[in-house]
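Reopening: Xanthine phosphoribosyltransferase still failing for me.
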Amino acid sequence: MKLLEDRILKDGIVREGNVLKVDSFVNHQIDVDFIAELAKEFKRLYEGEEITKILTIEASGIGIACIVAQEFHVPVLFAKKNKTINIANDVYTSKVESFTHKRSYDIIVSKDFLKPEDKVLIIDDFLAMGSAMQGLISLIRDAGATIVGAGIIIEKAYQQGGQMIRDMGVRVESLARIKSMDNNTIEFIH
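Support: Ran it again with your exact input. Result attached.
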């Protein structure tokens, strides 16, 4: 999506370790009007699919998922990274390793909100190594729900995650696919 690629080139910052910072408009400070345009593209890509729920992972996916959910007129469910006293013991759980935070954690979703009859679209800001996505897929499958697909804002296509998730039979639609990047350049796959 050219709109997104142009914004990444304008405002994205490549840091050491192949970390792309888009926190000025995607996942720390959110440019809501811009994200609304991305949400319309996800709506177009998944037009005609029956979707009953949007699923994401806390925290940076929540804002984006909410805007996408408005397009589909369905609720957002987010996998929590920490169990609290507000969530009963009846949960689906999966282990996730964070590339960015360099640690692993359990994600949980209450069984009250993810049911076998749900048709779920996963929305997230990044897809790189695929661990978070695998965790979300595991939660959906444990619930007996249907995975409609995954909508990703930015895929680091030079890492294994995207292909791994596609090899699992999950439809992945990424709005920007990065072929390579370094401190001076970002190259996209078209």
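The domain at 2-188 is CATH 3.40.50.2020 (Rossmann fold). If you still see a failure, please send the error message rather than a screenshot.
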